[in-house]
Amino acid sequence: xxxxxxxxxxxxxxxxxxxxxxxxxxxxxxxxxxxxxxxxxxxxxxxxxxxxxxxxxxxxxxxxxxxxxxxxxxxxxxxxxxxxxxxxxxxxxxxxxxxxxxxxxxxxxxxxxxxxxxxxxxxxxxxxxxxxxxxxxxxxxxxxxxxxxxxxxxxxxxxxxx
Length: 162
What we know:
Elements (H helix, E strand, L loop, with lengths): L2 H9 L6 E4 L9 E5 L4 E10 L20 H18 L7 E9 L10 H8 L13 E7 L9 E10 L2
Helix pairs in contact: 2-3
């Protein structure tokens, strides 16, 4: 047991996950960092990709348009992550770290659509349903696992054991 955990245990206080807000003149969408104490349950999700807008369409005929733009793909991917987390007893509010890989969008001259990704992100974090946000890195990549994907997201979620 660490000194901090021993101090908490002896004082009767329960350990909690601590989220450090980013500093600066304007409120940030993301955290500066997160401290996860001993005893927390941690779940690591592999990178997730968007689902096609029309799930009935044959996979062999799918194009980038069938997955949507960056915002649409981010919404699809975060919706998928939300379902995976729920199936493991976690919630979006338990996400502490996110890495977002964004491919250059031909509709944006080969540059990533950072604004579109952030618009979708704001639908899931800092909301009435989920007031939490996360520590996050967003990286433009040359390409993802398939030519139709613009966004891949991996997350780490943590919650205190009940």
